[in-house]
Amino acid sequence: MTAFIEPITLSGSHAALEPLAYAHHDELLDAVRDGELWKLWYTSVPSPEGMRDEIARRLALQESGSMLPFAVRSLASGKLAGMTTYMHIDAKNRRVEIGSTWYAKSAQRTSLNTECKLLLLTHAFESLACIAVEFRTGFFNFASRRAIERLGAKQDGILRSHQRYADGSLRDTVAFSIIAPEWPAVKQHLQFKLGGD
Predict the structure, then answer these.
(1) Phi/psi at 16 (nearest 5 deg)?
(2) Is the pTM of this model over 0.85?
């Protein structure tokens, strides 16, 4: 098993990223019901009925070497707040994408998200020696696009008619990245944001 898919727990002051397991199922149901996020047409958030299948999908991708999935725990509440992953892992070229992320509505725009990204980026650049970390989101997911830009990622471009939404409509995907030379400044920026909370 390569270091890129080796289960690891990453912890900070606000959040802990735990290796995803079936044992997280019931807590994730509570998290996804906070805001009914699966009803947003421009996202790919699992419904309560689809949560077990989504956990299985992510764990199968981990087994195949292309994903490292996490459950996100709020340390303030002690409850799970969502899921995130390293995905599209390219260990040979030392690249990962941080994605398939969703948070309960009450956890959005909080220190939890900022710290999760700091933990994931730190591990990617400083432990896995990544040359780049990517982020992708749907064109109409303006909240996600703004959140990615606030991290310090730069837009690489828009992949037109890149995927299909659950309803069959075509998704334009906006691609962003942070490259290794940018990481020290991005890290300082994220640490500063967390210090201001």
Answers:
(1) -130, 135
(2) yes
